[in-house]
Amino acid sequence: xxxxxxxxxxxxxxxxxxxxxxxxxxxxxxxxxxxxxxxxxxxxxxxxxxxxxxxxxxxxxxxxxxxxxxxxxxxxxxxxxxxxxxxxxxxxxxxxxxxxxxxxxxxxxxxxxxxxxxxxxxxxxxxxxxxxxxxxxxxxxxxxxxxxxxxxxxxxxxxxxxxxxxxxxxxxxxxxxxxxxxxx
Length: 184
Known about the structure:
The protein has about 180 residues and is an all-alpha fold.
């Protein structure tokens, strides 16, 4: 009899995982999914109205110097093309800057999600976990800041870190290329 009870509890726990997953999925369908769809529609509308050539011109301009190459360009790439297509904006940077651009773009996947969840919906679980904790604190009257302030701070710190990482990766790429005798 004990074996039967153990198996029954195991079966309930097993199906409980899927029930919890289903509830989470329904929460996404009624919560974040409509937001993502509207954001994607808005971004594609902006690209359509502004014109793809103008977006490309802006990207070429942003690729021109170290400050914008590792902050503005990855931000534009993630915002307009989303992950993983954002990495194609690497076509606007010189060959020697491509590793550092990729490093900056991939590092922006998390920080951009708080303000622009359409940019990298695959990473929403991280942001939603943080947001849930801040929301609980806010409900209890203990939140030190709003979710919007946190999302903005997260993005700004992410852009600063991207700049540092881009510069360091560029420097490392130059050292390795020199050591290996590769002309870049």
